[in-house]
Amino acid sequence: MFEFKIVKESENSPARTATFTTEHGTINTPVFMPVGTKGSVKTMKPEDLKEIGSQIILANTYHLYLRPGHEVVKQLGGLHKFMNWDRPILTDSGGFQVFSLGADFNQRKHVPNDKPKMKNLVKIREDGVEFKSIIDGSTHFFSPKSVMEIEHALGADIIMAFDECAPFGCSKDYARAAMERTHRWAKECVAEHNRLNATASYQRALFPIIQGGMFTDLRIESAKFMAELDTPGIAIGGLAVGEPRELTWEIVDTIIPYLPKNKPRYVMGIGTPEDITEAIKRGIDMFDCVLPTRLGRHGSAFTKDGQIHIKNEENKLSLEPLDPDCQCYTCKNYTRGYLRHLVMENELLGLHLLSYHNIAYLTQLVEKLKKEL
Predict the structure, then answer these.
(1) Of residues 48, 92, 157, 285, which has the active-site annotation?
(2) N or C terminus: which one in the chain shows less Cβ crowding within 10 Å?
(3) Which strands form 122-125's sheet, in the order they lie side by side?
(4) Within this chain, do residues 275 and 302 fall inside the same structural domain, yes or no?
(5) 0.85 cut: is pTM over it?
(6) Do 158 and 238 have their domain in common?
(7) Total tally of structural domains belonging to the chain
(8) Beta bridge partners of 300
(9) Is-catalytic flag, 275?
(10) Whether residue 61 is found in the same domain as residue 178
């Protein structure tokens, strides 16, 4: 079902273009995936995303589990019908949110004797994680099995294995413990996923997540382990969590030789023009980030000259578009002066138009880089 075909390879780098076939459509990679955390890409309609050329969007397992609940989504027809999106969808496992939102992330950094003192919001166990809801404080438990059940109920085309994301700055002993726990959970996820897929109305593709902190030997060990699981694709997690960018790409460069060439490679949480450029030239096929819409909602936009802040006085009388080379709806129809006015007045249209541009800008950048291979 999940066929990955390399279409073109660069002569000068590991960069490549490919296709990845899913039940709800074929994805042409490399691809930037907008994030719809709670079942909606903020300020954007599905029709807007299609007009931009978005091929696949993400939804967040943790948030949708808490509200409205995966069983509610299932009864309402699954995520594709629920969101009115008939193209591929990817759901993360909720692991990052459990650890970063439910706990004091910093308490796992540089902890003496590698015994992190967690707040009562989260209890990490070998069989899963107990955590408190950020909505009402109620207690919940995620295990590899329950996360697979939740993701299958949500109905995405690509689902992520449950993992523990060790924070930047943690000790090597803690990073190893989190990695080994992630490996055990990945095997459990594969077993439960295969069981659920056997009776599913359509197949989901499971991607395990490489961990190991900022330690190259652990990353190599994790890459080898995940590759041996022989899943349709593999993700690289635990990056873009506060580390220097040169370290990010050092880790990716270390991992790439150990990944199967004939499967999609997904770096989680990457979404600036600079990061996307670096990812593509290293042969990364998929990447996502909340940054385009988050920046848009705060009055910032990507341009060929770098990120701009529309509230700056220099834009008050500007008749220029955000980026003269951008072909998006926002740049074709609105001036910086008008966009500044909208944002200064907290008009929702301004947030939408900036978010629209930012997603379109990254989508166009990916297409440009693909043509240059």
Answers:
(1) 92
(2) N
(3) 122-125, 128-132, 139-142
(4) no
(5) yes
(6) yes
(7) 2
(8) 309
(9) no
(10) yes
What would the two tokens of residue 305 be? 């000259």
Strands 25-29 and 57-59: unpaired
In angstroms, the CA 56 to CA 26 distance is: 9
Q: Taking each helix axis from N to C terminus, what angle separates 245-255 and 216-228, rounded to the nearest 10 degrees?
A: 40
Backbone angles phi, psi at 28, to 5 degrees: -95, 120
Inter-residue contact 87 to 55 (CB < 8 Å) = yes
Annotated catalytic residue: which of 163, 285, 288, 323? 288
**Separation CA 367–CA 363 (nearest Å):** 6
Same domain, 285 and 311: no
Active site residue 104: no
Same domain, yes or no: 252 and 193 = yes
- Mark whether 11 and 29 lie in a shared domain: yes
Tell me which residue range forms the domain holding 211. 4-96+148-289
Q: Which two tokens stand for residue 290?
A: 């909340």
- 113 has a pLDDT exceeding 90: no
List, for residues 236-278, the tens digit of each pLDDT value: 999 999 999 999 999 999 999 999 999 999 999 999 999 999 9
- One domain for residues 258 and 296: no
